């Protein structure tokens, strides 16, 4: 009986030691961060390579934890939560639980897990650069038309744009400057189309646009800037010339003028000499 008790105690001790060792070797998710662009949202983390897997859960406002169907016992260190994080105005938090292979017995509370920072898709998802066109309306006025970036969401067979999500909260910032001038001006459009007036006629202007959501915190208000587009303008011949070409042209012009003056002086002297000779012949 005494030997049986000792064997049981030894078994319990060894089991506890094995669980502690397993817990010590289990990798913990680190550097947890959110990566979200146009509401395509990924949860990313780093971990030491091992045979362990990860299961991602999420919650909001102290609600019960939900498991992401596509992120249960995954070997990857990222999880796409785009479809789970709705409604978009909620603030979510994720939990990355480390799990061993299915053959290993364990208690969930004995394995490490890591919580993510809070994330609000509506207020924090980055917005990509928008495409736009610039057309001349009249002298000194252009029309700017902006195309809303698309999101990862679909509804009734249609891919939703950021306008479908933000509605009247979405505005656009337009930054422009006169070509050759470093001074920039910014204006705000409440819609996808607007006009910029007061431009100097005949000059080229360059434009960039970016989504602007003033209802967000300042760090997340502005989306990425678009590629710059410039109007052609009406350049004269001197605007097209570089400084070196202009100096060379002036030098050649100066030489031509010197030659013309020299030829004129020579011709005038010869004419004057011929005139004096003719007068002398007439007197004789």
From TrEMBL:
UniProt GO BP: blood coagulation
Entry annotated with the keyword Protein transport: no
Membrane spanning residue stretches: 243-268
InterPro entries tied to this protein: FN3_dom, FN3_sf, Ig-like_fold, Interferon/interleukin_rcp_dom, Tissue_factor, Type-II_Cytokine-TF_Rcpt
Location of the Interferon/interleukin receptor domain: 132-231
The entry's keywords: Blood coagulation, Disulfide bond, Glycoprotein, Hemostasis, Lipoprotein, Membrane, Palmitate, Signal, Transmembrane, Transmembrane helix
The Fibronectin type-III domain, residue ranges: 8-104
Region forming the signal peptide: 1-24
Subunit note: Interacts with HSPE; the interaction, inhibited by heparin, promotes the generation of activated factor X and activates coagulation in the presence of activated factor VII.
Name this protein carries in UniProt: Tissue factor
Organism: Hippocampus comes
Organism placement in taxonomy: Eukaryota, Metazoa, Chordata, Craniata, Vertebrata
């Amino acid at each position: 009986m005494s030997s049986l008790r000792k064997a049981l105690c030894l078994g319990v001790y060894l089991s506890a030691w094995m669980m502690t060792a397993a817990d010590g070797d289990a990798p913990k998710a680190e550097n947890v961060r959110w990566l979200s662009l146009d509401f395509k949202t990924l949860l990313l983390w780093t971990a030491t390579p091992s045979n362990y897997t990860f299961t991602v859960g999420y919650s909001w406002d102290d609600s019960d934890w939900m498991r992401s169907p596509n992120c249960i016992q995954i070997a990857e260190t990222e999880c796409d939560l785009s479809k789970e994080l709705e409604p978009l105005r909620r603030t979510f938090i994720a939990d990355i639980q480390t799990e061993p292979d299915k053959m290993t017995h364990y208690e969930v509370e004995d394995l490490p897990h890591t919580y993510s920072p809070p994330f609000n898709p509506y207020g924090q998802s980055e917005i990509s650069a928008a495409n736009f066109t610039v057309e001349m309306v009249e002298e000194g006025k252009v029309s700017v038309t902006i195309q809303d970036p698309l999101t990862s969401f679909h509804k009734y067979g249609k891919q939703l744009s950021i306008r479908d999500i933000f509605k009247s909260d979405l505005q656009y910032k337009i930054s422009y400057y006169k070509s050759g001038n470093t001074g920039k001006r910014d204006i705000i459009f409440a819609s996808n189309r607007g006009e910029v007036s007061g431009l100097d006629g005949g000059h080229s202007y360059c434009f960039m646009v970016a989504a602007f959501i003033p209802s967000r915190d300042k760090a997340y208000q502005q989306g990425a800037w678009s590629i710059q587009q410039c109007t052609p303008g009406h350049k004269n011949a001197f605007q097209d010339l570089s400084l070196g070409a202009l100096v060379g042209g002036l030098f050649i012009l100066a030489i031509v003028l010197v030659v013309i003056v020299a030829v004129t002086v020579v011709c005038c002297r010869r004419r004057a000499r011929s005139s004096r000779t003719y007068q002398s012949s007439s007197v004789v």
